[in-house]
Amino acid sequence: xxxxxxxxxxxxxxxxxxxxxxxxxxxxxxxxxxxxxxxxxxxxxxxxxxxxxxxxxxxxxxxxxxxxxxxxxxxxxxxxxxxxxxxxxxxxxxxxxxxxxxxxxxxxxxxxxxxxxxxxxxxxxxxxxxxxxxxxxxxxxxxxxxxxxxxxxxxxxxxxxxxxxxxxxxxxxxxxxxxxxxxxxxxxxxxxxxxxx
Length: 197
Fold this sequence. Notes:
Active site: 108
Number of domains: 1
Number of strands: 7
Low-confidence stretches: none
GO molecular function, one term: phosphoribosylglycinamide formyltransferase activity
Distance between the termini: 26 Å
CATH topology: Rossmann fold
Binding site for N(1)-(5-phospho-beta-D-ribosyl)glycinamide: 12-14
GO cellular component, one term: cytosol
Largest sheet: 7 strands, mixed
Mean pLDDT: 95
Domain Formyl transferase N-terminal: 3-181
């Protein structure tokens, strides 16, 4: 049984999908803790599903390394097999990545390497792209440049807004994430091997 720690900054729609999937006794993973860098709306899911949560507020880039150390301390006490960044909007300091890699994965609302960074959906629209997508990657020190675990295309429709496009990407992200967690737990995806490639 994989133990998961999920880090969020927002509403936690991917987190909810994981929590709902793990209610099935056959699902080979359980969320053991939920972490956030702010008072995120998704933290209420901890109460709803009876999962412990923690918050390590980000106070500014001058204290980034110290913040990272506190965050890592909180994560490690749960002894997770996998840490998932799901809508977590902070870049992790290098020593946090080094401590968790390669068992540290991130969902991203674009077909990487297209449109990395915090505004993948907005950037795809601004570029006039006819398609974008969703990606799941192994986190490294780059910005959304780690090895791709899974990805899928999503068309950009005429009249799409940032909200409408993101709303169509989110279910794809959720599906990719659930399948990847299954595949990692069942040994069909080897994160060590992906990380080395």
